[in-house]
Amino acid sequence: MAITGAVLLSWPAWAQAARPSVETGGATEINAQTARLWGTIDPNGLETTYQFEYGPTLEYGSKSPALPQSIGTGPVGVMKEIEGLKAETTYHLRLVATNADGTTAGEDRTFTTASWEILSTPNPAGATASNR
Prior knowledge:
By secondary structure, the protein is mainly β. The protein has strands at residues 21-28, 35-42, 48-55, 62-63, 67-69, 76-82, 90-99, 102-105, 109-112, 128-131. The chain has one domain (19-131): Immunoglobulins (Immunoglobulin-like, Sandwich), CATH 2.60.40.10. The N and C termini lie far apart (58 Å).
């Protein structure tokens, strides 16, 4: 028996895979031991969790606890303050979000912590955030 045609099945738009969209923002309020990490997430209509991965190399090594993001569509800003950093150290960071359709990792960014001497300055000149 020969097959003479094929039937193309397509999913409706609402049933398409909807992994979260993620954009790693960067770091602010950087001092010798803490920084505030931020970015944006579009959960694409599914319950989503997010966390920041960070560390002195592209292997990161540390991550914030997974936090819930409300169900919705459109980008939403998220942030997390991290502690226990080493002074005068360059860190890599990225935002990672997960929902039922998968996990998305944002771009790598870097920031450098301040020295102990300028710890009391809110935005020390030696503390920078940049794209990798």
